[in-house]
Each structure stands twice: as C-alpha cells, then as structure tokens.
Amino acid sequence: MKRAFALVLALSSAFFLPKAPPADAGKPQREKNRDPDAAELIVSDIDLFWKAYDGAKPENLVERLREEYLKKGSVGLKEFMRVRIGSAENLAKTIEQHPKYYATLRDPSLKVAAHKKAIRACLHKLKKLYEPAVFPNVYFVIGRMNSGGTLTDKGLLIGVEMYGLTKGTPMKEMDGWHKAVLKPVEEIPYIVAHELIHYQQKFPISGVSLLGTAIAEGGADFVGELISGSMINAHLHKYGNPRERELWAEFKKQMDGKDVSNWLFQGDRAKDRPADLGYYVGYKICESFYKQAADKNEAIKAILEIRDFKDFLRSSKYEQRMEKTSGVRDPSPARVTMLPAFFRFPLPEFMIFPKS
Ligand SMILES: [Zn+2]
Predict the structure, then answer these.
(1) What pLDDT, on the 0 to 100 scale, is given for residue 189?
(2) pTM, 2 dp
(3) What is the chain's mean pLDDT, rounded?
(4) Interval between CA 210 and ligand 1 midpoint (Å)
(5) Which residues are within 8 A (CB) of 285 and not within 5 positions of it... i.e. 6 or more apart?
(6) Cα 339 to chain centroid, rounded
(7) What is the rounded CA–CA span in Å between residue 260 and residue 268?
(8) Hey, is 301 helix, strand or coil?
(9) Ligand 1: distance of its center to the CA of 352 in Å?
(10) CA–CA separation, 116 vs 37, rounded Å?
(11) Nearest CA to 47 among 178, 169, 156, 142?
(12) 313 CA to middle of ligand 1, Å?
C-alpha cells in the first residue's frame, strides 16, 4: 500500500496576512482524518513569500527565495518545491519573466484567507455526500506558474499564483496557456474542491488509459462542483457543449490508449482549440452516470471508487446518449464495480502540467 502510494508520487512529476503560522504547520499530516473541522487550511507560506520577495534585490533573489521562503516554509511548501517548483532558480526565473504579474499578485494572495469559510463549507458538504471522506491539510503556497494545485500524502497543495487574475493583470507577460488558465482568487475554493476529490479517488494506477485519466479529472471537476458550487474548467464547457457529440466521436477513437497528449495536460500546446478538453469529456461521463442514478450518494461513491473505467462508461450510458437523438435517456439504473474499501490512494494531480 505504502509502496503503491510512493509509486504514485514518483510518477507525479497539478486574507489577511496570517498573524502567525499555525502551531503545527509543517508537521506531517495525520493519515486518515475524517473530521472536516480538523483539516488545517495553512496560508503562512504566502506571508513568508512576500517577506522574502520584499527583501530581495535582483542580484540576490535566488538566495532570498531559497533561504527565506523555500527553506523556512511549511511541509506543504517543501512538497510543492519537490513536485512542482524544483529549485529557487526556477522560481526566480519565473518571477523575472513575469515581474509585473508577481507585483500585482500580492493583494489577491492576501485574500486567500478570506475564503477559508467557503472552503471549510466544501469539506462539510463532502462529508454529507460521501461519509468515508478523508480530509487532508490544505497548503496555500506561491509557486512558479506551472500548477494550480496538486496533492501528495502530506496534503493538498494549492499554487496561489495561478489565482491572481485581476483587472490589473499585465496580460502582455502571459502566453496563451496562462491567458486561459489564470483565475481570480474568488475561484480558490473550486480548486481546493477539485484536489480534495482527487484525494478521495480509489483508482488503480497501472494501465490507466486516456479514458481513465479523463474520468479521474472530470470526476474531480464534477464532484468538486457538487461540493463547491462551481469548478475550474467552465471555459472548457463553454467550448465543449455546442460540440459535445463531435468531441465524443474523436475522444472515443483514442480513449483506450495511454496517450493523453491531445486531451490533457497540454499547457500551451493546443493550437486550434482550448487545451485539456479531456476534463470536459470526463465530466460529461460522470454527469451522465450521476443524473440517471436513483441514489445520488451511491452514485458519488461509485464515481470515487471506480475499478474498471470501461465498465463505468457503460454504466454511465453516455455513449448511448451521444449516439441517440438528444433528449432520449435510458432509464435503467447505474451500476458499477467498486474496489474494496481498503484499496485507496490518491491520483497525482496532472491538472496543470509543468510546461518546461
Ligand atoms: Zn485534477
């Protein structure tokens, strides 16, 4: 079990100023916390980043980031360093490439703490919908604009710098991908919800197809939306809804393979349409499954505990619906094979893939 989890991690490579860091910020996460009020929402790394940033000059930015931010940060920041930031040099380079953006990031980043109540409400909602839910600590950190969020066995790691979009954001510093994915800080609860759902998913990791990865991501969006009220990929739905059948026909031809490059984690490589439409297709499959299920909580359990993705797709009736005239729905109830309860590990977050 632990080895399986380590393998997952190895494969994964997605306010107000806090007055003081929480007393136990930086301590290892309890393995299975089932109390939504016991999960910590840790924002102390944001404060730490600004102290390091404010004291830096161009010639010592790398050193300041390394000594005053990355080394002094929470266990969550250290995890984010390991799986997403990489080095102080990487972080400094990103700041140097987006100087105006990082300068405008301060105000939105300091508003993250104001969303703690909404985030806590998401945790409670999940407990109501899925009683076996586990609640890890959530770390809000500032990274290098390559990941809105990810997770490890230490908890959920949220890249706050991906949620700094304001009217004043200097878009000239952004490439196409950043223009599409940067979000305002008000959307922070949606990414926490998405990552929290990944934390619940009980999926085998070997032999995961495009279909499986799309369902994992789309399922995190779908159930995340149920607990938070929205999701991080609304722009994909806007594009996908008028083209749902043609997207499905294209996806279907590739879904059994392991090549996800046309559908997921594309960064700015998608040229003629939005990147990452696999989230959309996966969402629609999960939505189809959920809508026809008589017992909605059982449906959520099924979505989080899929064993066989093809079996789940069949149970969702999505394919049949895409091939029927619109509005016709198969009334038979959803069924899906589930994993034994002990078999559990979170998927790595591939949501926003490092572009380098
Ligand atoms: Zn994800």
Answers:
(1) 98
(2) 0.83
(3) 86
(4) 14
(5) 214, 215, 218, 312, 313, 316, 318
(6) 23
(7) 15
(8) helix
(9) 8
(10) 11
(11) 142
(12) 19
